[in-house]
Amino acid sequence: MDWQLTDHRGQPVGPSDWIGRPVMFFFGFTWCPDVCPTTLSDISLWLEELGPDADRLIVALVTVDPDRDTPEVLADYLGNFDPRIIGLTGSAEQVAKAAADLRVKYARVPRDDGDYTMDHTAGVFLFHPDGRFASIIDFHEDRRFAVPKIRRTLS
Length: 155
What we know:
By secondary structure, this protein is an alpha+beta fold. The protein is built from 4 helices and 9 strands; from the N terminus they run E-E-E-H-E-H-E-H-E-E-E-E-H.
């Protein structure tokens, strides 16, 4: 992977910054009506269940809607969830590069009211500390299965 994004604090972030720590992240957007807030709530519960081990993880939401999801918007939105979750954004090209590196699909979908929403891959990606892919947690996967997947990534 060879992408570069900006976190919700305005700092540049790339995959090389994460080497040495296990990583859990997913693609979504702040205007998402259901999948993203549900996933962030699930992640917050998983982190709570992991206890102090959760502090070893890097956890991030990568936006698929960089036109609306500025670092400031991400910071405000993520204030509703576990504070260890970071938000990542960038130009449309930077987000497309990050998504392509993981074969994530997303598309802008016009709505009848003239606005738009985003369709996107809904899985949560897990990576080992050395950067190797570990697993995916599917949307609505029971925490009885999700948390052990995360624990295996931590070991």
